[in-house]
């Protein structure tokens, strides 16, 4: 089983790192130096263990290589206990940010800050600033209450703003967000009532 193999390899890596830590630090110090080995633990829902490991262990292996950390995942009571071992605070922070991004799940009706990362003719692709890598399409019809001819009339690359999460569109089965839902709706213009001349006679 690929997942069991990945967990086993990660466990071996943890034991190796722990051995090195024991060799390096014979007795605990009052203060931890910036480059001293650290172990950070994060608990995630069990349903996200597979996403963190990735197909054939691809995600976790690439993450370890990029950050110089060792990541160990154990399943305990249907929860994933993730241990991050490393000497670089930046590397550990990158792993934590990736975990937050993977387990991020927007809540229906809530507002989230997003950043425009791609412009399209029919909208803009935005990513949640609290979960980089989590992208969603902001359709041109959800930009503003006024009719929008060009997306660039309202938003541009790199713009940061708030959107409302509307859930999954039943037609497209894709997640939907709206910028205009958080803006005050302009009053409708009342058309003057035309007075008809009364027939004479």
Index terms:
8 strands; Ribosomal Protein S8, Chain: A, domain 1; 26% helix; 3-stranded antiparallel β-sheet; OB fold (Dihydrolipoamide Acetyltransferase, E2P); 4 helices; 5-stranded antiparallel β-sheet; 2 domains; alpha+beta; 201 residues
Helix and strand element order = HEHHEEHEEEEE
Strand order of the largest sheet: 6-5-4-7-8
- Count of alpha/pi helices: 4
Q: CATH topology of the largest domain, anyone?
A: Ribosomal Protein S8, Chain: A, domain 1
Per CATH, the architecture of the largest domain is 2-Layer Sandwich
Report helical residue fraction: 25-40%
Overview of the structural elements:
The protein is of the alpha+beta class and 201 residues long. It folds into 2 domains: 2-103, 2-Layer Sandwich (Ribosomal Protein S8, Chain: A, domain 1), CATH 3.30.1370; 111-182, OB fold (Dihydrolipoamide Acetyltransferase, E2P). Helices cover 26% and strands 28% of the residues. The protein has helices at residues 2-24, 49-53, 58-67, 89-103; strands spanning 38-45, 70-76, 79-86, 111-120, 123-128, 135-139, 160-168, 175-178. The strands form 2 sheets. A 5-stranded antiparallel sheet has the order 6-5-4-7-8, with no helix packed on it. Strand 5 and strand 6 (135-139) form a beta hairpin. Helix 3 runs antiparallel to helix 4 (89-103). The longest helix has 23 residues, at 2-24. The radius of gyration is 26 Å and the shape is elongated. The model has no long low-confidence stretch (mean pLDDT 84).
């Amino acid at each position: 089983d690929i997942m069991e193999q990945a967990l086993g390899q990660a466990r071996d890596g943890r034991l190796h790192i722990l051995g090195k830590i024991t060799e390096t630090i014979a007795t605990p110090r009052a203060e931890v130096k910036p480059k001293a080995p650290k172990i950070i633990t994060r608990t995630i829902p069990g349903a996200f263990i597979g996403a963190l490991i990735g197909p054939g262990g691809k995600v976790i292996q690439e993450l370890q290589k990029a950050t110089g950390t060792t990541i160990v995942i154990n399943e305990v009571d249907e929860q994933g206990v993730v241990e991050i071992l490393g000497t670089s605070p930046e590397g550990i922070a990158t792993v934590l940010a990736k975990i937050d991004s993977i387990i991020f799940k927007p809540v229906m009706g809530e507002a989230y800050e997003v950043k425009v990362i791609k412009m399209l003719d029919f909208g803009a692709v935005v990513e949640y600033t609290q979960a980089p890598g989590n992208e969603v399409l902001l359709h041109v019809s959800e930009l503003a209450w006024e009719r929008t001819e060009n997306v660039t009339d309202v938003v541009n690359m790199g713009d940061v703003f708030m959107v409302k999460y509307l859930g999954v569109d039943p037609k497209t089965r894709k997640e939907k967000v709206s910028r205009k839902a958080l803006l005050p709706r302009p009053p409708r213009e009342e058309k003057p009532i035309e007075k008809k001349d009364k027939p004479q006679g």
